[in-house]
Amino acid sequence: MTDLPDIADELPPDRSLGFQVRRCHRAFDRVLNAQLAREGLASGFWYFLRALWQENGATQKRLAQLNNVTEPTAVAMLRAMDGLGLIERVRNAEDRRKVNVFLTPRGEALRGALTPHARRINAVAGEGVSARDLETCLRVLKKMSDNLAAEAARLADAPLR
Amino acid sequence: MTDLPDIADELPPDRSLGFQVRRCHRAFDRVLNAQLAREGLASGFWYFLRALWQENGATQKRLAQLNNVTEPTAVAMLRAMDGLGLIERVRNAEDRRKVNVFLTPRGEALRGALTPHARRINAVAGEGVSARDLETCLRVLKKMSDNLAAEAARLADAPLR
DNA sequence: CGATCAGACTTAGATAGCTAAGTATTTTAT
DNA sequence: ATAAAATACTTAGCTATCTAAGTCTGATCG
Question: What residue ranges do the domains of chain A occupy?
Fold first, then answer.
């Protein structure tokens, strides 16, 4: 029992991927919010708008999946966006359980204004980091997300343990 | 105007660090919550407990900084933890603006139960990734956090733009 | 055909984060 | 010495997320 294991047991924030991902997420979110506020938008809209620019007419479930949020979160967000006239929700005629979401001209128009912000934020974040290291980070983040999603599913399956 | 520039302009989620950090954060958070729920705790407590295990007696402001949350968030969390008997808050006698936060025996005792979970979650996340790539990711995440924090400060300083 | 199961959306209520503004205390600068 | 500024905490109220449970619609199976 030297003192080194003790230090290791503490799992200091600097050495914890979970902590650093959390910190980085909040940093991104703050800047994104600051930028969107200048366009008069709340930050939550961004992710849904982007999904719709790629897949206009997607169902709410699909949009939730694309954004990695739950369906109630998507419902709340889309209702707010509907209220602002950014999107329209239309009940699907063939399968009346579904609701398809379409951009209004106003929602479509935000694309030109917002995309440069997103590109800029990513550029600022990556300043001083080599392209190669950024690629590695991107790849590791995806892998970790997948690993953790699998673990979450495992935990949900095993009710007691 | 070929079709390639268009694709690039879309900044697809797969290529966006902001998006991947967000997704990874949510994945970590879900697993952490699932684990803590088994100990009867809400996930927000984890970060404050860990900070106190390292710096028992820290002020609320210090705890907020250590966790990268705002002071109101810290206040709310610490009040809840106080209510559960995990911590005690004592007004500082020398500078009565400050409140020092101390772990109760009960809060101290959670350390043994919770730390293994955190270590395990980090281990699961990093499965199948080389130690070297994990180091790179850690380093890039810290750098991006710093870059974005500086940008946030810049944006706050420049009220109009 | 009818009952049950599954799917997509919704509602209700909780949690954790934020900003903006307020209070009490200490420090700084006339 | 006192007015002004800064600091630490708090309050109030908003946003985005979650889980659990409910409603309607469609699919399956005896």
Answer: 43-114
Q: Which residue is nearest to nucleotide C27 (CA to C1')?
A: B95
CA distance B106 to B102: 11
For domain B44-126, the CATH class is mainly alpha
- Among A56, A73, A29, A30, residue whose Cα is nearest residue A111: A56
pLDDT tens per residue, range A7-47: 445 677 788 999 999 999 999 999 999 888 888 888 889 99
How far A102 CA sits from the closest chain B CA (Å)? 18
Q: Which two tokens stand for residue A112?
A: 């030109």
DSSP letter assigned to residue A138 = H
**Is the Cβ–Cβ distance between B106 and B85 less than 8 Å?**
yes
Any idea what DSSP says for residue B103? E
- Segments of chain B scoring below 70 in pLDDT: 1-10, 157-161
CATH number of A43-114: 1.10.10.10
Both tokens of A8, joined, read 């290791």
The stretches of B14-130 forming alpha helices (DSSP H) are 17-38, 43-54, 60-67, 71-83, 105-125
DSSP letter for A59, please: B
What pLDDT sits at residue A40?
82
Most A CBs within 10 A among B33, B48, B147, B155, hence the mutation to make, goes to: B147
CB spacing of B138 vs A21 below 8 angstroms? no
Nearest residue: Cα versus C1' of D12: B72
Tell me which chain B residues have a C-beta less than 8 angstroms from the C-beta of A13: 50, 66
Residue A38: the pLDDT is 84
pLDDT attached to residue B1:
44
Residue of B66, B129, B140 to mutate when probing chain A, most A C-beta within 10 A: B140
**C-alpha Rg value of chain A to the nearest Å:** 20
